Structure prediction request, 153 residues.
Amino acid sequence: MSIPDYQTLMLPLLRFAADGNDHTTREAVDALASEFQLTPVERVALLASGQQAIFNNRVGWANSYLKKAGLLESPRRGALRITARGKQILGDNPARIDAKFLEQFPEFIDFRDAARNNRKEETSSVAVAMEQTPEEVLELAHQSIRLGLAQDL
Prediction:
C-alpha cells in the first residue's frame, strides 16, 4: 500500500481520538501507520527536503486541518484531543472527511480564505493536487525552479 494522502488520514485520525483522551502526535502517527499497514520503508520515507518523514507530515496536516475546523484541539503542544463537534461528526458516521467536507465549518472557511489572501500571487506552472500537503507542493515548486535555472545556465 502506498502512503495515504493527508485527506485520507482525516477520518481515521478523528476516529483515533474518539476515546476523548489526550494523545500525542507520535501516538497518532504510530496508530495510523499500523492501521494503514505501512511498511518500515514507507514509515521512514522522507520529503524531498530530507527533513521530515512523508507520513508524519501528512498526519500533521490532517491534524492541522481538523483543528482549524474545530473537530480536534490541542490541550498542549504536540498533543491532540477530540472536541464535542468532532464527536458529533463521528456520530453522523461520515464516509470520508476531506477539505470539501470541512468547508461546512465557518472556522475552516475563515482559515482557508486567510491562507488564500496571504498568497502574494498564484503561478500557473504549479498545480496544487489535493493529495499533496502544502509543504510537498512547495518542494515540488522549488525543484521545478531549480531544474529550470539549471537548464538556463
